[in-house]
Amino acid sequence: MPDTLAKAQVRAEAARLLALFEGQGAQVVETPILQPAETLLDLYGEDIRARAYVTSDPMMGEAMLRPDFTVPVVQMHMAEGAEPARYTYAGEVFRKQEDDPHRAPEYMQVGYEVFDRANPAASDAEVFSVFSDILAPQGLRAATGDLGILLAAVRGLTTTERRRNALLRHLWRPRRFRALLDRFSGRAQNPEGRKALAAGDPFEGMDAPVIGLRSRDEIEERIAALREDMTTPPIPESEVALLNDLLSMRETMTNVCENLRDLAVDMPSIMGAVERFSARCKALEARGVDVENLDFEGSFGRTTLEYYDGFVFGFYAASRPDLPPVATGGRYDALTRVLGRGSEIPAVGGVIRPELLLAAGGAA
Amino acid sequence: MTIKLGVPSKGRLMEKTFDWFADRGVTLARTGSEREYAGAVTGIDGIELVLLSAGEIPRELAAGRIHLGVTGSDLVREKLGLWEEKVGELAPMGFGHADLIIAVPKAWVDVTTLDDLDAVAAAFRRRHGFRLRIATKYHRLIRDYLRDNGVADYQLVDSQGATEGTVKNETAEAIADITSTGETLRANHLKVLSGGPVHRSQATLFKSRMAEWSKDDRRILTDLKDRLGLED
């Protein structure tokens, strides 16, 4: 970064932010820098190897330098935390920057996480407004989104469970999601090889043995699934259009509220999510957030590494488009479900990068 | 006052490299005893020959310790992040052809494309409780390729040799490796996914962007490119 700030200055800023979060009633926690790689790989997939530093230890096996705090904080809370809980932390995270060597591979994050199942809308609003108040002096631009609405919209599509699951699985990979949606709605051809599976015995004339762990059963199961899929009618054009409207929405939060209610008339599946959205709107207003001027983007949060599945937000330095977001956060109930092996704790939180906050302040 | 040219130190790759330069009037030769890794360049002034393992040439180019180097285009892409910023391709040399491919058991009659592989990976993980394993030594190339194509629920397991055997041995469900004829794949009951190889590799003459290039060095490079018939 051109204006790399002295580490001591960044640490002092981190300490200031930590104290502010503590002032909100959060308990200060620490997590190890070395994290078992397995958990993170299972969550994020192989892609995280390109983003995180992997090292190995003769005792613990493969380990990663902490790429974020969320996972260890959730684990700690699930193991020993009492509910409701508010945590704050400050420390380095490590991310390889293979595609952009100008971005720092090691930087401080100061975070605030809320585990409270009483009133999710109020918790969402609390986290956002705490961040918004702390960041107010820098005049950052805030953007918000809601992955919960997208998830509900996909779950409501008129098609098979299998197709809905395939789309849900790729919600965080927009290009793949688009390719699947095009195919399921009849806009794109099936991939090659499918026709040959439609009739007869696909194993006829096969001269090779079934080798490896994937059994003949599994192969036949998928052939049956593909055959069923070939006779599945396309997702109705009208539903795809509504989904596209949702994805391309860029409006202020107040306007979105009205638009979403209109959309929900034709898309009843999102009604519950829209109600959660308006409850959040009200809760934000009650905390003094200017929702009339708060941006909402339908696709916001779809390309992050994180596991957000509800409210999402980011704060940006408008004068410094070269900088990554100064702060990001959101709701990650799904993450607690995966890490908790069935038990789930509604959770929402976010992080600030003190170095970027200082840089943004300097430029303002 | 010399520039360093790194070439593979042994085998067919070395011989083919020597032939390629000889055809263009530049003689590369090993000197000293057969076991000594020393070499000489004749037919042009100012070039010092450095004999290296082909696998180390990308690293030496990126460190700027050699100015020019001959190695596989696959190795440069695998071993160097942002390779285009560190090296430039001067000439594809027309030998050492090999395709980096992804292969699955031939008996997977339901799998033709990457799209199928992705769907199978999801089902496999549900059934077996772990991510579908792809054995390879080309971690970066394969991971980037699969990410760009939106494949999830897989893991790469390192395999430095006999990769085609890993499926039968049940240490992987699929493989990603270099192949020139595909015979080893067939013999191990594997088939290549459609949609073209991940990378078509061949021996390539690279220029380091990280090495120091003095005025004299640049003049030598211009001479060499003239001699080799390369565009500026």
TrEMBL record, chain A:
One of its GO terms (biological process) is histidyl-tRNA aminoacylation. The keyword Glycosyltransferase applies. InterPro entries: aa-tRNA-synth_II/BPL/LPL (IPR045864), HisRS-like_core (IPR041715), HisRS/HisZ (IPR004516). GO terms for molecular function: glycosyltransferase activity; histidine-tRNA ligase activity. The keyword Transferase applies. L-histidine binds at residues 68-70, 95, 109, 113, 302, 307-308. Residues 9-173, 224-352 form the Class II Histidinyl-tRNA synthetase (HisRS)-like catalytic core domain. GO terms for cellular component: cytoplasm. Keywords: Glycosyltransferase, Transferase. PANTHER family: HISTIDINE--TRNA LIGASE, MITOCHONDRIAL-RELATED (PTHR43707:SF1), HISTIDYL-TRNA SYNTHETASE (PTHR43707). This is ATP phosphoribosyltransferase regulatory subunit. It comes from Maritimibacter alkaliphilus HTCC2654.
Automatic annotation (TrEMBL), chain B:
It catalyses: 1-(5-phospho-beta-D-ribosyl)-ATP + diphosphate = 5-phospho-alpha-D-ribose 1-diphosphate + ATP. Keywords: Amino-acid biosynthesis, Glycosyltransferase, Histidine biosynthesis, Transferase. GO terms for molecular function: ATP phosphoribosyltransferase activity. GO terms for biological process: L-histidine biosynthetic process. Its EC number is 2.4.2.17. InterPro entries: ATP_PRibTrfase_cat (IPR013820), ATP_PRibTrfase_HisG (IPR001348). GO terms for cellular component: cytoplasm. Pfam families: HisG. It is an enzyme of class 2 (transferase). Pathway: Amino-acid biosynthesis; L-histidine biosynthesis; L-histidine from 5-phospho-alpha-D-ribose 1-diphosphate: step 1/9. The keyword Glycosyltransferase applies. Residues 54-225 form the ATP phosphoribosyltransferase catalytic domain. NCBIfam families: hisG. Catalyzes the condensation of ATP and 5-phosphoribose 1-diphosphate to form N'-(5'-phosphoribosyl)-ATP (PR-ATP). Has a crucial role in the pathway because the rate of histidine biosynthesis seems to be controlled primarily by regulation of HisG enzymatic activity. This is ATP phosphoribosyltransferase. It comes from Maritimibacter alkaliphilus HTCC2654. The lineage of its organism: Bacteria, Pseudomonadati, Pseudomonadota, Alphaproteobacteria, Rhodobacterales. The gene is hisG.
